[in-house]
Structures are given as C-alpha cells and as structure tokens.
C-alpha cells in the first residue's frame, strides 16, 4: 500500500513537469481576457467585457465600475484597497522560499551556468520589488476609506504573486529528483553545508557572457524602481491633501444643510463627524481625487504604471527573454493599458476642464 509520502511524491512527479506549461497558460488566458476587452470586437459579449473591467476596478475606478449584471450578487462584493499589502506579503514569502530552494539547486558546484545565475538574479530583483511595494503600501500610500477593489481582483492578485516568482524559475527545476537533491543538500546530506555560501559566491563571480545585458537590465530596473517610488510619493501626498479637502467640503456642506433645516448639521464624535441623524459624513467622489500634476506627472500621465512595465521588461531581459517572463511582461503591459485608459476616462469625465483631451491616447501612460 502506498504511503502518504509516496503518494505526494507521485503527484509531484506527475505535476511538476507540466508546471511550466500551466504557468504559461495562466499568462495567456489572463492576457487574452484583457486584450478581448480592449479591442472593439463586436463578437465579444458586453457582459464579458464588463466583468473584466469590474475586476480591474479599484480605488477611484471603483466609483465608475461597470454594472456587470452577469456576476449576479458578486458584482458589488469588494474588499478595502488597503488589502494590496496582502499581495506583496504573499509575493515576498513565496519568493523567499523559492530563493532558498533555488540556491541549493544551483550551487552544487562552483561553475553555475548562465541560466542558473540569470534566474537567481531575476528572483532576487523580484524579491526586492515586492518588499519595496509592501513597504510603500504600509508606510507611503494613502487609501481613502471609500477606496475599494473587487473580490475577483483581490483573488487574482493573490494568485498572481504566487505565479509570478514561479514563472522566473527555469524549467529544469521542475523535477522531483532535482528538488530532492536540493532538499538533501539543505539538510547537509553528505556535503558541507557551510560550503554553500562559498560555492554560491564563486558561481556568481564567475565570468558571465551576458554581462552587458545584465548591466542594462539592472540599470533599467533601478531607474524604473526609483520612478515608481517617486510617483507613489507624489500620489500619496496628493491623496492625503484631497482627502482632507473632501472632509472639509463634506463638513461645510452638512453645516449649511443643517442651518437651513434649523438643526446641527455636523457633530464631531470619536469615530468621526456625523450628521444630525448620526450618519457618517461622506465626501463626494469629485472632492476625493484630483488630476495628478507636478514632477513626473507633467511628463507622463501614469508614470507609476510605466515604471511597472519597465520593471517587468527588466526582469525579462535578465532571463534572456524566457517564454514565461515575456508572457508575464505582456500581461503587465496589457493590464496597465486597461487601467491607464480607465483612469484617464475617470479624469476626463469628472474634470473635463482640468484634463486635456490630448492625453487620451492608445498608450496613455507615455505621453
């Protein structure tokens, strides 16, 4: 009779060789859904496009979300946008585990191949990316209380940050024998565990035929990361200022209405300001957001989106354009085109005098 350990090993032996193809299918399906939504194809059901756009609705876009009736009661199920931090927490945990496993896979000797070292660098850069984004989500970004995202977007985001680091692994790792050897080495199976650091150091410093490619990829990665961080600093500052103004507008409006009705229109409480009926004052959407201006936003409509695309382009360059990394970068590009177009539509609708029509382009984040 097969033991539990043997059963798990048999499943892993059957699933792991198929994992690269499954990961590629994940990106192809996700990209196809966005592409079908972006293209003006009459054969694509409007309900499908509405569902995809709804899944992409978050923050300010949640207020302009499509009425995806095909989803039934799920069309309005949402979670706070602050839950973005969960994505980066999951991504950092998964990447950390994969890095630890991969180090033992690629350092049994000192002549680590180019493929092994490129994938190791890509995983390390992705780790830095998700750790930075986790820190930004917690300590930099400002999410209004009304900022929401759809449950589908939340669930997809969790899966994304599991699939993304797995995509950066080369196919030779998806083998039970390779992983078992790495496990044995991690436990010191007949080898000097202390020598792993020395072998890793020697493999990383060995001559690399693609050093100029890696140097270019690192330069692009650093530039894009700084651009995104600076953009998020600006967005956070503008969001805090807009939230303060929105609260002031709501209080003044409630006071004026109360004066006309002969009642107290705004009552401060420990939980916030409420109206005469005890209901929390809700700021108008038009007061909660403003058209981003200043700094890089004077040059690029959505520089944080552009930076994200460049970061994944850098990861694809590090891996010499592996199929998985290119498919992943392609999905990031299409997804952010959809998000940027929706963002511009939001601003043009609510601030027609402050958002010039010249910014409405096919690729709106590189104006």
From TrEMBL:
Localization annotation: Endomembrane system
Any one GO cellular component localisation term in the record: endoplasmic reticulum
Signal peptide: none
GO MF term set: polyprenol reductase activity
Family matches, as InterPro entries: 3-oxo-5_a-steroid_4-DH_C, Dfg10/SRD5A3
Pfam family, one: Steroid_dh
Keywords: Membrane, Transmembrane, Transmembrane helix
Biological processes per GO annotation: dolichol-linked oligosaccharide biosynthetic process; lipid metabolic process
Occurrences of domain 3-oxo-5-alpha-steroid 4-dehydrogenase C-terminal (ranges): 288-367
Record's bilayer topology term: Multi-pass membrane protein
Protein known as: 3-oxo-5-alpha-steroid 4-dehydrogenase C-terminal domain-containing protein
Organism listed in the record: Chlamydomonas reinhardtii (Chlamydomonas smithii)
């Amino acid at each position: 009779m097969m033991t539990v350990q043997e059963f798990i090993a048999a499943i892993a032996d059957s699933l792991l060789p198929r994992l690269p193809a499954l990961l590629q299918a994940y990106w192809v399906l996700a990209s196809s859904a966005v592409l079908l939504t972006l293209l003006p194809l009459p054969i694509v059901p409007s309900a499908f496009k509405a569902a995809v756009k709804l899944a992409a609705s978050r923050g300010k876009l949640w207020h302009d979300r499509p009425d995806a009736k095909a989803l039934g009661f799920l069309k309005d199920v949402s979670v706070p946008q602050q839950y973005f931090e969960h994505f980066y927490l999951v991504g950092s945990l998964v990447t950390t585990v994969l890095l630890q496993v991969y180090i033992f896979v690629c350092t049994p000797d000192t002549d680590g191949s180019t493929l092994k070292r490129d994938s190791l660098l890509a995983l390390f850069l992705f780790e830095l990316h998700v750790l930075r984004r986790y820190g930004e989500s917690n300590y930099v970004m400002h999410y209004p209380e009304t900022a929401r995202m759809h449950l589908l977007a939340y669930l997809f985001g969790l899966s994304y940050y599991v699939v993304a680091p797995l995509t950066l692994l080369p196919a030779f790792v998806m083998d039970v024998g390779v992983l078992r050897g790495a496990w044995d080495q991690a436990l010191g199976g007949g080898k000097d565990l202390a020598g792993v650091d020395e072998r890793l150091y020697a493999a990383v410093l060995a001559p690399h035929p693609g050093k100029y490619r890696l140097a270019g990829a690192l330069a692009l990665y650093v530039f894009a990361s700084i651009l995104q961080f600076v953009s998020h600093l600006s967005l956070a500052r503008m969001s805090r200022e807009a939230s303060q103004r929105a609260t002031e507008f709501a209080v003044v409006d409630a006071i004026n209405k109360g004066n006309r009705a002969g009642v107290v229109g705004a009552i401060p409480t420990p939980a916030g300001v409420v109206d005469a009926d005890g209901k929390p004052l809700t700021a108008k959407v038009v007061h909660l957001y403003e058209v981003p201006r200043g700094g890089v936003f004077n040059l690029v409509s959505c520089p944080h989106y552009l930076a994200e695309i460049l970061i994944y382009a850098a990861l694809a360059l590090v891996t010499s354009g592996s199929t998985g990394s290119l498919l992943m970068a392609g999905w990031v590009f299409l997804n952010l085109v959809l998000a940027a177009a929706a963002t511009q539509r939001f601003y043009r609708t609510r601030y027609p005098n402050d958002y010039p029509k010249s910014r409405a382009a096919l690729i709106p984040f590189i104006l």
